[in-house]
Write a structure and sequence with these properties.
Length: 225
């Protein structure tokens, strides 16, 4: 009724970063309820978006682990009738690897959804700007925000979660948020018609991430059975 259209989180991605005393069994069950609620609304003509939390712990997470968790949570959501899913990825710092991870994430999420019989799910991506320690100097912080925006643009992420120059020392003001948004928006506008050129390095990274995700997904399914 208030216009809420999207919700971030999931049984795995919102457990590991935030709770050490609650089992995955419990959080998966709780989020199963949330996903079923979204599915119920979908069945009654109200489309809501579900978004697994890509950065996980907000530290350096191997792309294949983050992507696998996102794919699993997408499958869990689709099973409950969710039709609109945004899978996320947190910036690692290496431009080629980050762009490769975004591409692999979108491709493999669609692949696994269709593999398990969910043919009508609309998949988008979200890129989280650097989640780790931020420089205190304003100029350096703006540089990091601009670098992240460049990766998101070249990686063709659908959405981007932004940071501010206040990350290192406190809660950002509305003015700091506005300035960071202007920085990100300007970089995205500069790069909107450009894309990362295919290269042997990029192709190799995409293939490596996909191979690792496939192995993790295979092991998960085997253990689940």
């Amino acid at each position: 009724a208030s216009g809420w259209t999207s919700n971030e989180g999931g049984g795995i991605s919102y457990n590991l970063p935030y709770a050490k005393n609650i089992s995955l069994e419990d959080t998966i069950r709780y989020w199963q309820y949330c996903d079923r609620l979204v599915g119920y609304y979908e069945e009654h003509g109200v489309a809501l978006n579900r978004e697994p939390f890509g950065p996980l712990t907000g530290t350096l997470v191997p792309p294949s682990i983050g992507n696998t968790v996102a794919i699993i949570e997408a499958l869990l959501a689709a099973e409950q009738g969710v039709k609109n899913i945004t899978v996320g990825y947190g910036q690692g710092g290496n431009m080629i690897q980050d762009i490769a991870a975004l591409r692999a994430l979108e491709e493999q999420t669609n692949h696994y959804l269709k593999l398990f019989g969910y043919d009508d799910v609309f998949v988008t991506t979200v890129f989280h700007q650097w989640m780790g320690g931020f420089p205190a100097r304003e100029g350096e912080a703006f540089a990091l925000i601009g670098y992240a925006s460049t990766v998101a643009s070249l990686g063709k992420a659908t959405k981007m979660i932004t940071k501010t120059t206040h990350e290192s020392f406190g809660v950002p003001t509305k003015e700091a948020n506005a300035e960071a948004l202007r920085t990100s928006k300007y970089l995205c506008r500069l790069l909107q018609d450009q894309k990362a050129a295919d290269s042997p390095e990029l192709t190799a990274e995409i293939n490596q991430i996909k191979r690792e995700v496939d192995e993790l997904m295979r092991a998960t399914v085997e253990v689940g059975r």
